[in-house]
Amino acid sequence: MELHVSDLSAVEVLDSRGRPTLAVTLVLEDGTRARAGVPSGASTGSREAVELRDGDPDRFGGSGVLTAVANVNGEIAETVRSRRFKDLTDLDETLIALDGTPDKGRLGANAIVGVSMAAARAGAAAAGEPLWRALAPDGVAPRLPVPHFNVVNGGVHARNDLDFQEFMIAPLGAPTLAEAVRAGAEVYAELRRLLAAAGHETGLGDEGGFAPEIDRPEEVLAVLVAAIEGAGYTPGREGVAIALDPASSEFWEDGRYRVAGESLSTDDMIDRYEQMVADFPIWSLEDGLAERDTDGWVRLTGRLGDRIQLVGDDNLVTNPAIIAQAVADGAGNAALIKVNQVGTVTETLEAMAVCRRAGWAQMVSHRSGESVDSFIADLAVGTGCGQLKSGAPARGERVAKYNRLLEIGAGGDLSFGLAG
Questions:
Q1: Which of 58, 325, 358, 377 could form an SS bridge with 401, CB 3.0 to 4.6 Å?
Q2: Can you spell out the DSSP letters for 363-378?
Q3: pLDDT digits over 86-145, tens only?
Q4: Where are the alpha helices (DSSP H) in 231-344?
């Protein structure tokens, strides 16, 4: 759809961690107005598109985004205002060319992605269709995704001694989205009860999961199985399975993985994952090895790729070219998808297209710093990827995405579940 931008502006707001981010508002010539809240990550890959921060120690400890806001209100607005774009791809390509750097570091990926998201939403509204339908690629059937609830937080998402960053529950066996959300909420409530009964604090990490003082991942996995069973569900793919995101780049140092006081080689780490998969109902493993441990990723895929989903995040950064290289290398079989990681909606859709052509799965993801913007819920539905992670079934900025899925699903005309 053609986009004729009449106005564009941004303001500095706070994300869910109390750190600054941008809210971008775009207005089309016909008066259609759309807003986008820009997410921000804590655990980041080294090749992500660059988030522009002010670096002023007297404001937010240097993390302010007034420079990025000024870029939207100034150079970007001057470029796109009163200009007719043939579609979103045309606008996004203009933004990329305007920035002129390979990592969007001049204008800021946080500035650019906010404009891209707002433009996508405005275009859908002007066309009189829901965002998810407007984002659907040609030939792809939209689908309600299986939600992956992050119920235990560690790593950089919590102030505990747990090195693994995310422990998720995935109701793969649920017959409907509504039943999947119910299962997530019920297991979460049972997990809170079990942790409290064992004497653990039940405070929350950045993504709404509990942050108990447990350091061994196997102990967390055992508690998750107990919570799944205690809530009345079957652990495993026929009921509620477990997904892990260790974010292993965060505990990789000098070629060794430091987990719960142990120093492990790459092969030791792979052995440990293999034992976990044998002992617990794990169906998906994200960032199991560090982003620079390329040879290890290939060995991990050879060992476990026919049994579980192996998701690349820090090593792939939603970048189409990088994903294509990983496919050629045989390093993984799925990609995590984060819009702000690559910096435009168009590039995000292309990254997902690379995955589809290769037979790789995709999981759309939130970031640790979020807003109530539910853009990624529509993205997951429209692209038919079948998977979304947006934190725990708690905290408004996380629940907003799951509630948006429920709203979309209420229409009753979309299938639910993992992509075929």
A1: 377
A2: EEE--SB--S--HHHH
A3: 999 999 999 999 999 999 999 999 999 999 999 999 999 999 999 999 999 999 999 999
A4: 266-279, 294-304, 320-329, 339-342
Nearest C-alpha neighbor of 343 from the set 90, 48, 33: 48
Give me the residue label for tokens 């189409």.
Answer: 320
Q: How far is Cα 400 from Cα 15, in angstroms, rounded to an integer?
A: 14
Per the CB < 8 A criterion, the answer to whether 16 and 369 are in contact is: yes
Token pair, residue 144, equals 């309600």
Tokens of residue 156, six digits = 């950089």
Q: Are 333 and 309 in contact (CB under 8 A)?
A: yes
| Cα 87 off chain centre by | 25
DSSP assigned state of 310: E
- For 276, how many CA atoms within 13 A lie in the half-sphere containing its CB? 27
Residue with tokens 């993984």: 332
The token pair that represents 420 in the structure block: 């075929």
Give the residue ranges of the chain where pLDDT is below 70: 43-45, 157-158
Residue from 267, 345, 307 nearest 96 by CA: 345
pTM, whole model, 2 decimals? 0.96
- Give every CB contact of residue 55 below 8 A, 6+ residues apart in sequence: 62
Residue 42 is predicted with a pLDDT of 72
Sole residue written with tokens 């607005």: 77
Cα–Cα nearest to 417, from 145, 43, 46? 145
Per DSSP (E only), the strands in 183-326 are 241-245, 252-253, 256-259, 262-264, 282-286, 309-312
Q: Which residues are catalytic?
A: 207, 338
Instruction: Return the DSSP state at 210.
Output: B
Contacts of 411 (CB under 8 A, 6+ apart): none
